Amino acid sequence: MSVDITTVIKEFYLLEELHALCLDEGNDYLAKAKLADDTREVRERFNTNLSNTLRDYLNIIIIGEGRHGKHLASPAFSFKVGRKNIFGVGTISRSASYDIVRKEAENIDPKSAIFQLLPAFLQRRWSPGYGGGKWAEIAKVALLQFDTPREIFIDTVINLQHNTGTVLNKSTELFDLPSTEVLKDELNYRAVTKEPLYKRWIRSNLSYETRSLYRRAQGLGLGIVPDEGVTEGETFLEHRFEPSITWGKTFILLEDVKKRRSA
Question: Average pLDDT for residues 66-76, to the nearest whole number?
Fold first, then answer.
């Protein structure tokens, strides 16, 4: 998809802010109650799409990072994805490894894969800038996809870093990140500002539905600044999503294959 992930992140936090604002202001009147219900529905749809996208993204990049682990190429540690062994094969490019993971997704159980890669990332056998503790932390966060509320999972992923920058700067074709510096600046702003986020972000390229909710909130006197923004092109909620990647349940250590054959 061609949607800018920085704008998507702004919209995520704006919907969280509006949701909280509706609750804080109370729902004594029918119009406010309807706004709260509509905000909840849009927020649920938006967060479902975003959490699924970030889930697929983390699964792809974590498994793809295994190509840098030379120690994973030994019989005791090698992994096999379908018919492709991409682990410990540094000659495979990043894009090629991601492509293999996406094509072989139905043969990969991401939970099993991440659990098995987690201790491998902690070993001190990675070249500088690859694998290691940072990727172990990323793997731990990826496991949140299985038992954590969407909003917490999304917020945690957004603020993750790998060895050389934001975790969101890998090219998987799931979204675009035109500028890591702009993303960094906006996240820093959110971390330190005491002002409502909409005062700075309401003019972003938000989805039509989110912009409509904020305009309704402004009309109800909830303290929202007038919205002078314009929605251009396809935004996150309007994007026609392909079905989420279908992951399988057969990600197996080659060592386990040998044990089964000898049993």
Answer: 64
Of the listed ranges 78-82, 93-97, 123-127, 137-141, the least confidently predicted one is 78-82
- Rounded Cα gap, residues 134 and 118, in angstroms: 11
The tokens for 28 are: 């004594």
Q: What is the mean pLDDT of residues 140-163?
A: 93
**Cα(217)–Cα(198) distance, integer angstroms:** 12
The ranges assigned to domains in the chain are 5-262
Question: Which range among 22-26, 32-36, 238-242 shows the weakest confidence by mean pLDDT?
Answer: 238-242
**What is the DSSP annotation of the chain?**
---BHHHHHHHHHHHHHHHHHHHHH---SHHHHHHHHHHHHHHHHHHHHHHHHHHHHHHHHHHHHGGG-GGGGSTTT-EEBTTB--TT-TTS-HHHHHHHHHHTGGG--HHHHHHHHHHHHHSS-PPTTSSHHHHHHHHHHHGGGGTS-HHHHHHHHHT-EETTEEGGGS--SS-B-S-HHHHHHHHHHHHH--S-THHHHTTS---HHHHHHHHHHHHTTSSPPP------S--TTTS-PPPPP---S--EEHHHHHHHHH-
Distance of alpha carbon 5 from alpha carbon 174, whole angstroms: 9
- Taking the model in full, what pTM does it have? 0.85
Distance CA 110, CA 61 (A): 11
Here the tokens at position 56 are 């697929």
Which has the higher per-residue pLDDT, 109 or 192? 192
